[in-house]
Design a protein that fits this description.
Layout: E1 5-6, H1 9-13, E2 18-25, E3 28-35, E4 42-43, E5 49-56, H2 67-85, E6 90-98, E7 101-108, H3 111-121, E8 130-136, H4 141-151
Parallel strand pairs: 1-4
Antiparallel strand pairs: 2-3, 3-6, 5-7, 5-8, 6-7
Helix pairs in contact: 2-3
C-alpha cells in the first residue's frame, strides 16, 4: 500500500496544477476550474470543512461575468488565496461559474479561523453581496463527486 502524500504548502505551490472545463448547467454556460493535484492519494483529513463563497454577478449577454466584474473577481480571488493558503489554513479546490454566481470552493482545517481571516481579507468587497456557507465534508465528497466527477 502506498503512503498518502500530506497536503502542505509545497503541494499547493511547487506542484500546483489546474484543470478546467466548460459546458452547460440548466441551459446556462458553466465554467469549472479545479486543482488537479488534489486526489484521494493526498491526505486531506486535516481540512474537513467545506467553505463555499459565492459572488452574484450582473446579467451579461454571454451568461458569464462582464470583463469588469471578472477583473474584480480575479483580484478578489488572488487576495483571498494569498491570505488563506499562506499557511494552508484554507485550500482553494475549485471555482465554479454559472447562473449569475461564481463560487469559490475551499476546504479548511478550522472553520472559525477561516471565517475570521476571510472577513479581514474581504473587507473591500463587503459592499458586494458575498455569501458564505460552511459544512463538514471530511471525505471531500463535494469536490470529488460533484465537481471532479462532473468535470472528468
Amino acid at each position: 500500500m502506498s503512503k498518502r502524500q500530506d497536503l502542505d504548502i509545497t503541494l499547493l505551490t511547487e506542484h500546483d496544477a489546474w484543470n478546467g472545463c466548460e459546458g452547460e448547467h440548466l441551459g446556462l454556460p458553466l465554467l469549472i476550474r479545479y486543482r488537479s493535484q488534489l486526489s484521494r492519494s493526498v491526505d486531506l483529513s486535516n481540512h474537513p470543512y467545506l467553505v463555499i463563497i459565492g459572488w452574484n454577478y450582473s446579467d451579461h449577454p454571454s451568461g458569464m461575468p462582464s470583463l469588469e466584474e471578472s477583473v474584480c473577481m480575479n483580484r478578489f480571488e488572488g487576495e483571498l488565496v494569498n491570505e488563506l493558503e499562506r499557511d494552508a489554513l484554507g485550500v482553494l479546490a475549485a471555482v465554479v461559474t454559472t447562473g449569475g454566481v461564481r463560487r469559490w470552493v475551499f476546504y479548511t482545517m478550522n472553520a472559525d479561523r477561516f471565517c475570521e481571516r476571510f472577513k479581514c481579507s474581504a473587507g473591500r468587497d463587503k459592499e458586494r453581496s458575498l455569501q458564505m456557507d460552511v459544512w463538514l465534508d471530511a471525505e471531500w465528497n463535494h469536490f470529488f463527486q460533484d465537481i471532479v466527477g462532473e468535470a472528468s
